[in-house]
Structure formats: C-alpha cells, structure tokens
Amino acid sequence: MARILVVEDEDNIAMALEFLLARDGHAHSRLSQGGAALVAIRTERPDLVLLDVMLPDMSGYEIVESLRADPGLSDVRILLMTARGSIVEKRRGLALGADGFIAKPLALSELRAEMTRLLA
C-alpha cells in the first residue's frame, strides 16, 4: 500500500483527492501549507506527493527545488497539480525535478494513470 501526501489548500479538491485515495486503498495524509509539507516529507518519507503549485506560504515549485537539492529526498516522487496548466508551467515544474504534472480540474482517469506510473 502506497503512502501518499496530499499538499492542497483548497478543501473541496483535497476532500475529493482523499476520497479517491481511500477508495483505492492508499494510506494518505493532507497538509495545506508548504512549510509543513517539507517537514512532513522529511519525516514521513511518503511514496508520492500530490503537490499543488499555488500554496499560501510557498509555491510547489519551491518545494520541488528544496526536495531535489537534498540528496536524501531526491527520490521522493512528486506529482504537481495546478489550475494554470500551461505548457510553460509544465515545463518549469518538470525542469525543477517534478516527476509528473497534471492540470486542474483533475480528470480522475488521468490522475489514476499518473499515480500508477509514478508508484510503479
């Protein structure tokens, strides 16, 4: 069973993700702040982080940069999620080291496919 950390500040999106993850049998937790997420990733070592780009205290891009700069955390899988799903945003996220990028609103089939790919 995969351990997944959801980092999302919008309650409705987070609740939908949590419902999906529970239904698919994944252990998961949720945070809404980037700083708290960095601490949790360091201590919990999740198998996958579903990471919103736009968070109140720091961006998902900053979190990806921090994780990729830390040799002990460079293997943590990160799926960036954003409402601004432009090619420029996607390229930036992947260039910084994210493992995947998905646009909101999330298509469940696309989300499941990306999660399966990243957890394989």
List the helices and strands and how they pair.
Blueprint lengths: L2 E5 L3 H13 L3 E5 L2 H11 L3 E5 L7 H10 L7 E6 L4 H10 L3 E4 L4 H12 L1
Parallel strand pairs: 1-2, 1-3, 3-4, 4-5
Helix pairs in contact: 2-3
Short key terms for the protein model shown above:
globular, 5-stranded parallel sheet, alpha/beta, 120 residues, 5 helices, 21% strand
Helix content, binned percent: 40-55%
Largest sheet: 5 strands, parallel
Rg, Å, rounded = 13 Å
CA-CA gap between termini:
12 Å
Average pLDDT, to the nearest integer?
A: 94
Q: Major sheet: order of its strands? A: 2-1-3-4-5
Describe it.
- The protein is α/β, with parallel strands linked by helices.
- The chain has five helices and five strands, in the order E-H-E-H-E-H-E-H-E-H.
- The chain has helices at residues 11-23, 34-44, 60-69, 87-96, 108-119; strands at residues 3-7, 27-31, 48-52, 77-82, 100-103.
- Strand 3, helix 3 (60-69) and strand 4 (77-82) form a beta-alpha-beta unit.
- Helix 2 (34-44) packs parallel to helix 3.
- The chain starts with a strand and ends with a helix.
- 28% of the residues are buried.
